[in-house]
């Protein structure tokens, strides 16, 4: 067994060699490169979060999603539906440090709320599984960002696993690491 699964063997329902706890498609055989799915994935199940391999894009200074983010968010919804043991996800909105703090705090919350609405409306994820939260510029990836690239890194949406069912080894691994 694995440490992440408290010494127990990792189940692999579809027999594709990717343990269910990190398999984006646990009921359909896929490849390791595609995180257990037949098609390329934009989401990876990580320790305590869903890691997205692309950014969620919004119109500048707005909470309106750009269409280029739809495939990514559709993939997030598919992973959440395939993993009902992931009971609660905090959808975090973050901004860069330019502009007014109060505005950025509100904008980040509105962006997180927009992502939740998309996942519920188009992705058919239960609203009870998602909590939108805005952090504005208070949790930067690049502190004291100055360049366009650094500022862009701080503008992001993250998906953190808040509460999970008893069979979810992802949370168990996070607990064991602490």
Q: Helical stretch count?
A: 4
Largest sheet: 5 strands, mixed
Q: Strand-and-helix sequence, N→C?
A: EEHEHEHEH
Q: Span from first to last CA?
A: 20 Å
Summarize this structure as a short list of keywords or feature phrases.
disordered C terminus; 178 residues; alpha+beta; 5 strands
Could you walk me through the main structural features you see in this protein, from its secondary elements to its overall organization?
The chain has a 5-stranded mixed β-sheet with strand order 1-2-5-3-4. The longest helix has 21 residues, at 101-121. It contains 4 helices and 5 strands. The chain has helices at residues 70-82, 101-121, 148-154, 169-177; strands at 43-46, 49-52, 86-94, 130-136, 156-164. With 178 residues, the chain is an alpha+beta fold. Strand 3 (86-94), helix 2 and strand 4 form a beta-alpha-beta unit.
Any chance you could write out the topology, listing elements then pairs?
Layout: E1 43-46, E2 49-52, H1 70-82, E3 86-94, H2 101-121, E4 130-136, H3 148-154, E5 156-164, H4 169-177
Parallel strand pairs: 3-4
Antiparallel strand pairs: 1-2, 2-5, 3-5
Helix pairs in contact: 1-2
Kindly summarize this structure in a few lines.
The protein has 4 helices and 5 strands. 28% of the residues lie in helices and 19% in strands. A 5-stranded mixed beta sheet has the order 1-2-5-3-4.
